[in-house]
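Q: Structure tokens for this one, please.
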Amino acid sequence: MKICEVHEDLAPKVHQFLCQREEFGRFRQWDPLFHYPWKTAEFPYGYALIDGEQVHGFLGTIFARRTIKGKSVVCCNISSWVVDESYRAGLGRAGRGLGKRLAEPILTRKDVVVTALTPNVLSKKSCESMGFQRLDSEQVAIPVFPGFRGWPGLGSYRELAISFEPWEFSPRLAEKERKICDDHRNLPCKHFLIESRESGEYCYGIATTSSIRRLATVDGNFLNLCYLSNTEFFVRHFRSFAGLLWKEGRIAAVRYDQRMIAQCVSKFTLRIAAPRLFHSADVGSPQVDLLYSELVLFNVY
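A: Here is the predicted structure, written as tokens:
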């Protein structure tokens, strides 16, 4: 039994192992975990628990080099953490702690910021026992209405150019945002730009979308914010932006982690419990966003 880095040679076998798992419910398409634009040979797809020729466990690791506080930092979002329970049980006492052993290679690196963005109850408990800290605990959801100060001729709408087409607006982005846009362009996430026609000031954003169960009959969706380049500009022009969302993708509510926006966006809000965790030696939680992660690869939140 050994823990192995997963690179191109082992990826097909791990892919097959994941496809046979029932723990992940709706996740049946695993290709995004092994095909994403910013992947380099420097980092593995994850770590696998191997016994003989068989895969019995896996921890996905989505690595990316980011700039945080002006410094180049290696970030790693962990995903798809699973150990075959029948194999673990067959080992008896020796099977204890196998999940944690899969995580040890990244947690022992002091130069890596590790995030766990969709932990269930068990993985949350395991992460916290290994020194993970709370990145966030709540999401804020805001209902939006078609045309609410967002139709042409109302409010500040005439002063803005709002686009959901990255091919159209990416040339106008600053270098940092243009790279983010290019890295995420062909993923199942939504891009948008809110721009002042007069001053050129803008907010570039990336979000995922997910269905709202209570609005399933009308196909109502959440717009789940993962990144905002200019939160103050976004808050200032939120109503104009929100008025276009139903037409754009039947979006009935905007949702975001509470740490993402310090200002009050709306008086009509709903708080949703949603733990996010991180492990880092020297990077504070407000500096860690949701990009380059399983959220944008699988269009989840």
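A few notes: The domain at 2-109 is CATH 3.40.630.30 (Aminopeptidase). Confidence is low (pLDDT under 50) at residues 150-155.
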